[in-house]
Every structure is written in structure tokens, then in C-alpha cells.
Amino acid sequence: MQQADVAIIGAGIVGLAQAWAAARGGNSVVLFERDNRAQGASIRNFGMVWPIGQPGGEMNARAMRSRERWLEASAKAGIWHDPCGSLHVVHRPDELAVLEEFAAVAPAMGFEAKLLTPAETLKKSPDTNPKGLLGGLWSPTEVCVDPRQAVARMPAFLQETYGVKLRFGTTIQAINLPEVATTTGERWQVRRAVVCSGTDFQTLYPETLAASDIRRCKLQMMRTAPQPGGHRIGPMLAGGLTLTHYAAFANCLSLPVLKKRIAEEMPEIVKHGIHVMASQNALGEVVIGDSHEYEQDIEIFDKARIDELILDYFATMARLPDMQPAQHWNGIYGKHPSKPIFTAEPSPNVHIVAGTGGAGMTLSFAYADELWAAWGKC
Ligand SMILES: Cc1cc2nc3c(=O)[nH]c(=O)nc-3n(C[C@H](O)[C@H](O)[C@H](O)COP(=O)(O)OP(=O)(O)OC[C@H]3O[C@@H](n4cnc5c(N)ncnc54)[C@H](O)[C@@H]3O)c2cc1C
Questions:
Q1: For a Cys staple, 378 with which of 8, 122, 191, 273, CB 3.0–4.6 Å?
Q2: Mean pLDDT score of the chain, rounded to an integer?
Q3: Is 176 within the bounds of a domain?
């Protein structure tokens, strides 16, 4: 029988953040991951640490605390990162109206965002489509990481720095504290267990997760080959559609006009929950997405039409030297309808942390810090 203070189940970003916070708090930690390397939502995303998408005030502050942790992890674990900021580019008057309204209140809400003229927007990102460009919203706070590299490197950092025990290829089948039951025959006793199993709602605590109202959401994504000649896009890019997606803009009085026009002009885009963003990793590949299909609409097979709609819209926003997707994939996250994160304690000292939706890379570190500040040393 092996022993640790804490067992973390799942080595996606939520589990990694939990393991880091628990270890920093002086706990001995064992991290279990059923696959030989994490393959869930955490390696399939844009790698956008995206405070500008969060509502102002408390959530923005949380995202900024997570951002600090990303910078710390990058420095200590050798994770590539680019604090390149973000640029929302707009080509329609109703989109500009939302940006103007948001920019006017942004400082009071804790954002550093600033409205740019078309010339300033093009200077920030020469890849912006100049045709009909009306302006942009520049924010310096967004950080780009390569999720594949970050999620692969964090476990080694945790092991080397804090002595976290890593158990990849090990599914946890049941938790009856102090014992957690593994599929490898290893036996572990722990004081606390944190279940960070992403969208696996079947293996552990299926009743709690079924009753949680967390909904699964499937996103289609693409990636270009490395841009030729070492070309960089500069800040991460978003367009007018994204203004209808993120909570930061939700209180803008000009938003309903924009939403109405989009619904009338682009019903297919709305049907598939498409809004278009782009990030660029260390290799120079540009990641482009995404769509949002929920529960009963989720199919195993991706829809070519969705990718076509995303690329067509992206072409209205930006012009890259190479716009051709070299890879296509999908990812599925769990999202709670009203809470930014779902936590539950199905039995004493067993915690579920899930439902981070489209902001797990942005918020997981701050949430882990908050939970472990409350839980303390085991
Ligand atoms: C396409 C896409 C793009 C996104 N873009 C962004 C973005 O740019 N910025 C942002 O902030 N967020 C983004 N998100 C959201 C973010 O990726 C998720 O919120 C986050 O990755 C969820 O992390 P997780 O650890 O809960 O889940 P996962 O990454 O799915 O990890 C769960 C892990 O638990 C393991 N596991 C499950 N059950 C067991 C068990 N019984 N025993 C052992 N291991 C188990 C699984 O194998 C898996 O590795 C995006 C999501 C997607 C899908």
C-alpha cells in the first residue's frame, strides 16, 4: 500500500492546476491519468489565456491571477509562451458600436483594453483584412501557450520540483477513502482525492455528474502548417462574431442589434455556434476555430461544412500567407449552464472539479489556488 496526502485524478489542465496548488501547499501528491499522456480538451484547445473574455470585476481578476501563474509555470517549467495580447478586429458598424461601448467602460471593469483606429489596428496586426476595416480592440493581457507542450511539460515539472508521483496509464475505478482503486494493481491510500476527469461522466461519481447539469460541447478546430518565412501574426485574433460569444461584452446595450443582424445574415453560423479566433504557436502554426455543438447535436464525425464556414469567416477578418488548414480535429468540454466551474463533494474529502467550459486554460490555476487556500494542508 502506497501513501500520499492527495490523489488527483486526471492530468488535463484542471488536474495539473490542482496538483500544483496541492503540492505548493506542502502536500504529497499522486497524479493519476488513464492515458499514457493526457489527450482531452486540454491539449485540443487554442492555448489562449484569455482574460478579455471574462466578465469584468471578480472573474477578470481571477483570469489575471491565472495569467500570473502561467507566466510562473512558463518560467519554471520551460513552457513556451507568448504574451502577445489580443486584437478583436471589426468590419461592420454594429460591431464597432459594441467595441466603442465596451472600450468606454473597460477600465472601470478592470480591463486594459483600448479602441484602435483602422490604421492602428493594421499596425498591431498587418494580417488584419484592410478591406472595410473599421477598427479594433487591443488588449495586452492575453497570453498564448501551446497546449500540447504545456500539458506534456507540467507533469515533469511537478515531479521534479515537488516530488509529485506520476501514474500515467492508470485509470481510477473507484474511490473509497482512504483507498483509491487503480487498474494497474497498485494500491494507494490518501487523505483527499480531487476528481478532474473532464467529460468522463461514466467512471467516477456518475450520479453526481449526471445531476450536475454540466453539458458537453463539441468544438471543431484547424491548424495551418507553420507560416512561411517565420511569419508571425502578432496578437491573437478575434472578429465581430466573438463579441456575441464572451461574457465580457454581454452587458453592451448595442449587442442585441449585432446579434439580430448576425442571426439574419448568417443563420448557419449561428446554428453551429461558430465564432472565429486564431492563435499562433511556437512552431508558427496558426490554430483556427471554432464551433459549438451541444449534447444531442454532438456526432463523432466532423462536419466539413463547419470548417468551411469558419475558414470563410476567417478570410473576412485576416489574410495570412498560408490560410490552408493542415490538420483538423475536435475537442469536447463540459460546461455548466450557470456556474463558471462546477465543484461537488460527493463524499467527505472527495472533490469533483469540472465544467470549466471554454475557459479552463484561462481560469484553472486561479480556481485551484482558491480551493487549496480553503482546504489547506491535509
Ligand atoms: C477545442 C477547444 C478549444 C478551447 N480553447 C480554449 C482556450 O483557448 N482557452 C481556454 O481558457 N480554454 C479553452 N478551452 C477549454 C479548456 O480546454 C477546458 O476547459 C479544459 O481543458 C478542461 O480541462 P480538464 O482537465 O477538465 O479536462 P481534460 O483536458 O479533458 O482532462 C481530463 C483528464 O482526465 C482523465 N481521466 C478521466 N477519467 C479518469 C479516471 N477515472 N482515471 C484517470 N484519469 C481519468 C482523462 O483521460 C483526461 O486526460 C477549449 C476547449 C476546447 C475543447
A1: 191
A2: 97
A3: yes
Report how far ligand 1's centroid is from the alpha carbon of 42 (Å).
Answer: 4
Kindly state whether residues 290 and 268 are assigned to the same domain: yes
Closest CA to 109 of 48, 58, 50, 63: 58
Distances (CA, A) of 193 to 69, 172, 179, 196, 352: 23, 11, 10, 10, 9
Q: Do 323 and 184 belong to one domain?
A: no
* 6 and 39 belong to one structural domain: yes
CA of 222 to the centre of ligand 1 (A): 18
Q: Are residues 323 and 283 in the same domain?
A: yes
- CA 334 to centroid of ligand 1, rounded, Å: 8
Mean of pLDDT values over 231-258: 98
Please give the average per-residue pLDDT across 23-52, as a whole number.
Answer: 98
Calculate mean pLDDT across residues 120-146: 98
Residue 269: domain span: 86-140+215-335
Nearest protein Cα to ligand 1, atom 19: 360
Of 37, 46, 215, 294, which is best to mutate to test ligand 1, by the most ligand atoms within 8 angstroms of its C-beta?
A: 46
Rg (CA), the chain: 21
- Residue 224 belongs to domain with CATH number: 3.30.9.10
Distance of CA 40 from the midpoint of ligand 1 (Å): 5
Cβ–ligand 1 contact at 246 (below 6 Å): no
Task: List the alpha helices (DSSP H) in the chain.
Answer: 13-24, 41-44, 58-77, 93-105, 118-124, 147-162, 206-210, 255-265, 267-271, 304-317, 360-375
How confident is the model over 147-201, as pLDDT tens digits?
999 999 999 999 999 999 999 999 999 999 999 999 999 999 999 999 999 999 9
Assigned domain for 35 exists:
yes
81 occurs within a structural domain: no
Q: Are 352 and 247 in the same domain?
A: no
**Predicted pLDDT of residue 19:** 98
Residue 200: CATH number of its domain? 3.50.50.60
